[in-house]
Specification:
Sortase, Chain: A; nine-stranded mixed β-sheet; 7 helices; 258 residues; alpha+beta
Length: 258
Amino acid sequence: MVLALLAGVCAGFGIQHLMREKNAGKEYEELLESVTVEPEETEEPEETGEPEEELAEEEAPEEKIEIPIDFDALKEQNEDVYAWIRIPGTNVDYPILQDEEDNGYYLSHTIDGEEKIEGSIYTEDYNSKEFDDPNTVIYGHNMKNGSMFRTLHNYEDKAFFDENREVYIYLPDRILEYHIFAAYVYDNRHLLLNYDLEDPLVFQQYLDEIFAIRDMNAHIDSTMEVENNDRILTLSTCNAGIKTQRYLVQAVLISIKN
C-alpha cells in the first residue's frame, strides 16, 4: 500500500510537471496580442499640380519609425520590461526584462511575477539596457512545448541557419537590427564574468575564438567580418538538459532606426 501510494504521488507530480510544460508561455502569447501595435496606414500625397522636377527638389520629410510594441502597456504591467526581441522564422517574440536586485529572479518568474518553470526572457545587470555593451547576453529557457528560447535550436540545421538570420530588438524609441553569424554548443561559463570584453584586445580574442570553432555541429559564417568595435548579441539557452552546456546563437548589430 505504501509503495502504491508513493507511486501515485510520483505519478501526480509527473502529470503536474507535464501540464506545466505543456502550458508554458501561454501568458506571453496573450501578451503579444495585447501589446502589438498595428502599423498606421500612410496617406497618399495630394496632387499639387507642381511639376515632378520641382517636387523632387523639395526635401522629403523624415519618416517616423513605428515601434510595433506598446511599451506603455508593458510598463504598466511590469516596470522591469525594457525591450522586446523578435526573430522571424522562430517562436521568439517576447519582452526582455531585467531585475535590478536579483539577476536570477526572471529565471523562474514570469512578467506577472508568478513563479513558473518558463520564467522570462531576461538579461543580467552586467549589461546595460541600452544594448551598447560589446556583448549583450540574453537568457531564455528551452521549453519542450516550443516556447521561450526552444526554437533557437532550429539553428542546428544548416539550411535554417542560412535562411533565418535577422534578429530585431525593439526599444521605446528605436529599432536595432542584428544579423546572426554563429550558432553552436558552448560550455556553461559566464561570458560576462570570464571575459573582460570592454578591453578591445580581449574582445577581439573572444571573437577569434568563435570564428576558430571547428565543431561539425556548429554553424559559423566565416564570410562575415565582426570586429572589436562592433556590438553583438548572445542568445543563451539550455542544451538537451546538460547542465555543463549552453546553446548559443550570436548576432552582430547592423543597423539602428530611430
